[in-house]
């Protein structure tokens, strides 16, 4: 798994916890100043809420479907398709080439004002098991949580050339919630350290689960020891105002 750098190049960098972190979407280059680790983790057998995000038919990020017509992902994943044109998803299968295909409705890409999170309305209702969302207090420092994504599985070539064909999951350890922990855009976040893996390019926008509830959206990773996920429990009112959940 891997958090993506922008397919057009390095989307940007932020300093998080003293480590260089970059948006977790699929990248076409590996930075020289960060030695990424592959998310070892393991392949997933079933994830009906999972969505692979494509921009102009290029796999780019990970996402989750949270309601029949609404997909949740990271803001930086849709930055190159903010009008919805060319943005699409394969939903409900662990194989990124399968699942139900849906297109974004032009003009229905909704970006939060301050956090690295976006909601996309798709062109038809998808009947599946949707990702249930957590509330404040669902995740706490010291918890071991699960991160999911189709990101990179290599360190010896561009990340875009080694995106995982099958969805993977890895455990990470929560080190902080909100406070000094922020996402790519400065929003409230859940910070975590590497467990049996760490997100990298292509995992951006993917979910973090605490138990059976989604609590985060992948935002940044140093691809070695630490990662930050948007704390979506802090943005439930915004999500509900659009998606109704």
Automatic annotation (TrEMBL):
Name residues in a coiled coil: none
Q: Which GO terms describe its biological process?
A: proteolysis
Q: Which InterPro entries match?
A: Peptidase_S1 (IPR050430), Peptidase_S1_PA (IPR009003), Peptidase_S1_PA_chymotrypsin (IPR043504), Peptidase_S1A (IPR001314), Trypsin_dom (IPR001254)
Q: Which UniProt keywords apply?
A: Disulfide bond, Hydrolase, Protease, Signal
Signal peptide span per the entry? Answer: 1-26
Report the PROSITE patterns cross-referenced here: TRYPSIN_DOM
Q: Which residues form the Peptidase S1 domain?
A: 38-244
A Pfam family it matches: Trypsin
Named from the GO MF annotations, one term is: serine-type endopeptidase activity
By sequence similarity, the record places it as follows: Belongs to the peptidase S1 family.
Q: What is this protein called?
A: Trypsin-like serine protease
Top-down, what is the taxonomic lineage of the species of origin? Answer: Bacteria, Bacillati, Actinomycetota, Actinomycetes, Pseudonocardiales
